[in-house]
Amino acid sequence: MTAAPHVESPSPRDWLEDFVPGTRERLGTISFTAGEIVAFARQFDPQAFHIDAEAAKASPFGGLVASGWHTLAKIMRLVSGRSVAGGGRGFIASPGFEDLRWIKPSRPGDVFEVFAEVISVTPSASKPDRGLIVQRFEAIDAEGATVCSLTGKVFFKRRGDRA
Amino acid sequence: MGDRLYFEDFEVGGCAVHGEKTVSEAEIIAFAREFDPQPIHVDPAAAALSPFGGLIASGVHSCSMMMRLMCDGYMLRSASRGSPGIDEVRYLLPVRPGDVLRVRMTVVDRRRSASRPEMGIVQARHELLNQKDEVVLEMTSKVMMGCRVPEAGA
């Protein structure tokens, strides 16, 4: 695990300057019910081990597991919520993400803590009012093992002279 | 099923387009209210004033819709054993209400698993296309795929 300083309560993120490289913050928890897992997967990822508890028992997972996209969506809810809570004035858009790892499956009843570490903040060379933030997001289970992680990228405007 | 797809069926350079899926405003808002409640995804009036000029789908929603196109296109009739992750997703253009999406899958590379002779790893590029044939999202990823004929090495 990283030795980066870590802030316990999520603070709102409104502008580029609110992201400090090297800081690590707990965003909150995500949890899964069987009903949620099946409902999401019926819409987006109807593989048997995501929608059929009986079939899932015979699968390599040995039981119902959430779609990896469902786990990602729940992580993104915490990330997005932090920006919206800050007023969302600085948020522009995300150009994408890298290195998404589904290390362990999410099962009904699972509760994971989600952490965000700011890797870099790079002012735009062509557009001085904004910059690119790169963060590593991790969902961690009760045993301390990482179950899912990804490197997210997002453009934010600079606060500049704004109050 | 006789037409089940196995590792051997995913030849490097092979390319296929699957779908389609029409995106509604209600779907965009419902997904984003649950998972990504930025104003550009949930509030048509606020989105109209943004640089996007209107409501756009959350990136994770676009990924999820692409996954459904992949499932219906080939994955549900394949010997897929799931994916260890995604190398990269690039959001290239917004997905808007009324867009009609398809997915183009290209096999970039493949290899047999060294440790598990019954499966192989297929590296693929998936491009989400809109009704103008523009690539709105590009994803590179690996899928573990069961082999029709298990064999050691190769």
Q: Which of globular, elongated, flat, extended, rod-shaped describes the shape of chain A? A: elongated
The CATH class of chain B: Alpha Beta
Query: Structurally, how many domains make up the residues of chain A?
Result: 1
- What is the string of SSEs of chain A from the N terminus onward? EEHHHHEEEE
Q: What is the alpha-carbon Rg of chain B in Å?
A: 18 Å
Helix proportion of chain A: 10-25%
Interface with most residues: A-B, 32 and 33 residues
- Strand neighbour order, sheet with most strands of chain A: 1-2-4-5-6-3
The first-level CATH class name of chain A: Alpha Beta
Strand line-up across the major sheet of chain B: 1-3-4-5-2
CATH-scheme architecture of chain A: Roll
Oligomer: heterodimer
In percent terms, what proportion of residues of chain A is strand?
35-45%
Report on this structure.
The complex is a heterodimer of chains A (163) and B (154). Chain A has a single domain, classed as Thiol Ester Dehydrase, Chain A (Roll), CATH 3.10.129.10. Chain A is 23% helix and 36% strand. Chain A has helices at 34-44, 48-51, 53-57, 68-85; strands spanning 6-7, 24-31, 91-102, 111-123, 130-140, 146-157. In chain A, strands 1-2-4-5-6-3 form a 6-stranded mixed β-sheet, covered by helices on one side. The relative contact order of chain A is 0.23. Chain B has one domain (7-146): Thiol Ester Dehydrase, Chain A (Roll), CATH 3.10.129.10. At the A-B interface, helix 4 and strand 3 of A face helix 1, helix 4 and strand 2 of B.
